[in-house]
Amino acid sequence: MSIRSWPPVLRALLAQALGFAVLVTLVRLGLRFPPLIWVLLQAVLAVFLSRWLALPPRWILMQAILPFLVRALWGVAIPAWIYLALFLVLALVFGGGLLSRVPLYHASQDAWEKLESLVPDRPGLCFADLGCGFGGPVAHLARLRPEATFLGVEASPFTWLVAWLRCLPRRNARIRLGSLWRTDLATIDVAYAFLSPVPMPALWAKVRREMRPGGRFISHSFEVPGETPHRVVPVKGRDGARLLVWDL
Ligand SMILES: C[S@@+](CC[C@H](N)C(=O)[O-])C[C@H]1O[C@@H](n2cnc3c(N)ncnc32)[C@H](O)[C@@H]1O
After folding, report:
1. Does some domain include residue 88?
2. With a 6 A CB cut-off, is 137 part of the ligand 1 pocket?
3. In terms of domains, do 50 and 151 share one?
4. What's the domain count of the chain?
5. Does one domain contain both 19 and 128?
6. How far does the centroid of ligand 1 lie from the alpha carbon of residue 128, in Å?
7. Quick one: 128 and 240 in the same domain?
8. 18 and 45 Cβ atoms separated by less than 8 Å
9. Domain extent for 113
10. How far apart are the C-alpha atoms of 48 and 80, rounded to whole Å?
11. Distances in Å between the alpha carbon of 31 and those of 24, 37, 38, 43?
12. Is 170 within a domain?
């Protein structure tokens, strides 16, 4: 895999690390500058390397600002454990979607209600929310359909815990901590996902490979390139929010 196709967060870290390595080399060679010049140099190198690594413009802007931000916080007496705590909280809440470039946001109550008509009312039916966030759709549908079974898969530990606690009262709902890519869809009748444009081609390939004919795939808002959905159901929420439905 080429470095330029790495997730942006890894490319951004690489650019900063390479820039820093250049500064360390210059110090070793005996160069001496005022601190602000070093910071400026780090920013310039990070921007240059980020462009080379094909990072999008908003990431390049963040790369330029980051060294100045670090410098500004340098002298501030913030205990080191706060940085660690912040890092851990971010990793626990958002870590699962970081590398697959899927942020945490939620389907609206209206989307949950529209899902009701898209999930057949059939005893024994298996529904999966791939990347279930805080478990809203799973908890809602499991309450209304006691005869069906509902699976939520979530990769971020804290997010998973919230969904797990939320679905605890539902005997027909299960929330699994793990990757949607390691979830076998062979027994799933209706798979639902609200992710981002990035994983859609790979997810569609997985759906086609693993789900049985007669199954249904629902994507909240994100299209599958080149695949026209059989139904589109607008939902309230952010602009362009809709449920795209494919019958397999
Ligand atoms: C946009 S939220 C959707 C939440 C919920 N499905 C809904 O409709 O309200 C996407 C979730 O997918 C999770 N996620 C991202 N990549 C994942 C992966 N590879 N495996 C499991 N979960 C993942 C993220 O952590 C995030 O909680």
Report:
1. no
2. yes
3. no
4. 2
5. no
6. 12
7. yes
8. yes
9. 109-247
10. 30
11. 10, 12, 10, 18
12. yes
Site to substitute for ligand 1 among 113, 156, 167, 185, most atoms within 8 A of C-beta: 156
Confirm or reject: Cβ of 129 under 6 Å from ligand 1. yes
Q: Residue whose CA is closest, atom 20 of ligand 1?
A: 179
Q: Which among 153, 215, 154, 222 is positioned nearest to 186, based on CA atoms?
A: 215
- Short-list 191, 225, 221, 222, CA closest to 209: 191
Distance 88 CA to ligand 1 centre (A): 18
**Pocket lining: 155 vs ligand 1, CB cutoff 6 Å:** yes
> Among the atoms of ligand 1, which is closest to the Cα of residue 133?
27
In tens digits, what is the pLDDT along the chain, a chain of 248 residues? 688 877 788 899 999 999 999 999 999 999 999 999 999 999 999 999 999 999 989 899 999 999 999 888 877 777 878 878 888 888 777 776 666 667 777 899 999 999 999 999 888 999 999 999 999 999 999 999 999 999 999 998 889 999 999 999 999 999 999 999 999 999 999 999 999 898 999 999 999 999 999 999 999 999 999 999 999 999 997 778 999 999 99
